[in-house]
Amino acid sequence: MPILLAGLGLASMVACQSPKEQAISVYAGPYTDNSLPEEIGLFKPLSFEDATLVAAAYSQVIEDSSPYYRWEVEGNVVQWFGEQDHQQLGGLALFRWMAFPWDHWVDTSFGFGNGLSWATKTPELEEAFHPDTGSTQLLWHIAIEFEFARPRRAGKPSWMDSWATFVRVHHRSGILGTFDGVDGGSNVLALGLRYRW
């Protein structure tokens, strides 16, 4: 818990100094050992474990000169419940595509981020499902998400303009042995809520 509070405190200090758009997000979802490209990416049937991730994240836009895409940075803090109960800290650089043909009905964006994820102890489920190579505290971190929001209407601001929902794959990976010989990882399919200002 102290690590989670420290992470949120650092995010709030950064937020006070930033002129570009920022956001606070919360998301949660169950652990799945289904692989990212072969099963989740192809929408095959998934199996879930009795372990749930709850996360809070702070993000900030760092480059938004194009109307079609932008770059963001994100820091997240995670608490696990159920079969594993450790905490995680993550940091990402995230590319967000902003333009979809149906945006006048549902404002949609697609985000893809890469960074690092550090766990306060080696995650038990990552070790259990990858007995040959195990796991380690520090792994590569990938986030893949779709965000959905109410379209903003010129001249008709609403309190809803700042809110969005999103679905995210929260992924940790050894990148084929790059991190301490770890050949596996873990995935969480999460739902979230985001407030931008």
Descriptive overview:
The chain is mostly beta strands. The protein is 13% helix and 49% strand. The chain contains 3 helices and 8 strands; from the N terminus they run αβαββββαβββ. The protein has helices spanning 2-15, 36-40, 124-129; strands at 22-32, 51-63, 69-82, 87-97, 107-119, 138-149, 163-173, 185-196. A hairpin with a 4-residue loop joins strand 3 and strand 4. The longest helix is centred in the N-terminal third of the chain and has 14 residues, at 2-15. The radius of gyration is 17 Å and the shape is elongated. The protein starts with a helix and ends with a strand.
Descriptive keywords:
197 residues, mainly beta, eight-stranded antiparallel beta barrel, 8 strands, elongated
Strand arrangement, largest sheet? 1-2-3-4-5-6-7-8
What order do the SSEs take from the amino end to the carboxyl end, as H and E?
HEHEEEEHEEE
Fraction of helical residues: 10-25%
Amount of beta strand:
over 45%
Q: Tally of extended strands?
A: 8
- Radius of gyration, taken over Cα atoms and rounded to an integer in Å: 17 Å
- The N- to C-terminal Cα distance equals 27 Å
Name the average pLDDT. 87
What class do helices, strands and sheet pairing give? Answer: mainly beta
Main pleated-sheet profile: 8 strands, antiparallel, barrel
Uncertain segments are: 3-8, 10-16
- Shape from CA axes? elongated
How many H/I helices? 3
